Amino acid sequence: MSYNDDTIKKRNRYTPEFKTKVVLEVLREEQTVNEIAGKYELSHC
């Protein structure tokens, strides 16, 4: 089986600063997790 660039997804790597920013937004409870995930184009899983 051969793969081309379209079938292989690269794993996103996030900086500790970005992760902290997102977690702090979640903890503020001003938006839902789904809203924040959509804002940053993240999967909420």
Number of helices: 2
- What characteristic shape results from the CA principal axes? flat
Q: What proportion of the residues is helical, as a percent range? A: 40-55%
Q: How would you spell out the order of helices and strands?
A: HH
GO molecular function, one term: sequence-specific DNA binding
InterPro entries: Transposase_8, Trp_repressor/repl_initiator, WH-like_DNA-bd_sf
Protein name: Transposase
Task: Kindly describe this structure.
- By secondary structure, the protein is an all-alpha fold.
- It has one domain (14-45).
- Helices cover 44% and strands 0% of the residues.
- It contains 2 helices and no strands.
- The chain is flat and about 35 Å long.
Present the secondary structure layout.
Elements: H1 16-28, H2 33-39
Pfam families: HTH_Tnp_1
Organism: Caldalkalibacillus thermarum (strain TA2.A1)
GO molecular function, one term: sequence-specific DNA binding
